Amino acid sequence: MLETEVRGPITRVHVWRTMWGRSFYTASAYLVDGLLVDTGPPATAREVVAWARGQEVHQVVNSHHHEDHSGGDGPLQRALGVPVAAHHAAVPILAAFPRLPLYRRLVWGQPRNVVAEPLGAAVETARYRFEVIPTPGHTPDHVCFFEPREGWLFGGDLFVHERVRYLRAGEDAGAILASLRGVLALRPRLLLCAHAGFVSEPCAAIERKIAYWEGLAEAARRWQAEGLSLRETTERVLGPEDVTARASRGQFSKLNLIRSLLEANENRPRIDTNGHEPQA
Hints:
The protein has helices at residues 45-52, 67-70, 73-80, 91-95, 102-107, 173-184, 202-225, 230-238, 243-247, 254-267, and strands spanning 2-7, 10-15, 18-19, 22-23, 27-32, 35-37, 59-61, 84-86, 117-118, 122-124, 129-134, 143-147, 152-156, 167-168, 190-193, 197-199, 252-253. By secondary structure, it is an alpha+beta fold. It has a domain at 2-160 and 186-200: 4-Layer Sandwich (Metallo-beta-lactamase, Chain A), CATH 3.60.15.10. The strands form four sheets. Strands 1-2-5-6-7-8-9 form a seven-stranded mixed β-sheet, with no helix packed on it. Strands 10-11-12-13-15-16 form a six-stranded mixed β-sheet, with no helix packed on it. Helix 6 runs antiparallel to helix 7 (202-225). The chain is globular and about 60 Å long.
């Protein structure tokens, strides 16, 4: 399924897949001045291509390689001949996309391979210049696109929601928090999120997400100090796992988030009483 929402010169392309009468996890791409930021999953690629034929799409960029952001790359490139660009670490993944776990194939579909070019420091269109901001954590190849004059931040999967309670295996909560603080310093005026859509007060929303995760980490540390296991700690802080963790065989779970938040605290530089990091 596909629907669009227009805000000024930006069009949000909101896509989702339905199975057994239910809609699954949704995703969004954004078109501005001929630049398409992300392309949605393979399952909706045909609809995205049909929509794009009636638009001025001159180039495609990916926030990262995940299938719900790059799944339309190949079909769009083959249908319209548009160039695709992504972080240099994503380029070989897109060229030979690995076989996905079953739950991800069922929800999004398996991407087809695509030839992409590495992103430079910025992406330019006729009217705008988007700075490429490395924002690792969700994946090592994750980037955001920031238009400083307009204050637009195309955030990919950096934000997602103020109260994210699950993490994929391999995500780094500490790095995500650092990336969130990095984009917060840019003081964006509009966040264009791949899942939350248009976020009109992004700085306040980002601050609330950081505070929420910091609160989870503090609660988890307290329960760990009481001698609870990681699983017991997770249940005390976020409640028991649900169908999300079971369907993904633990690849997408609350436990992953709590583990990563605790590891981020353990790896944080220790500060002495004078406010200085200890010397190595």
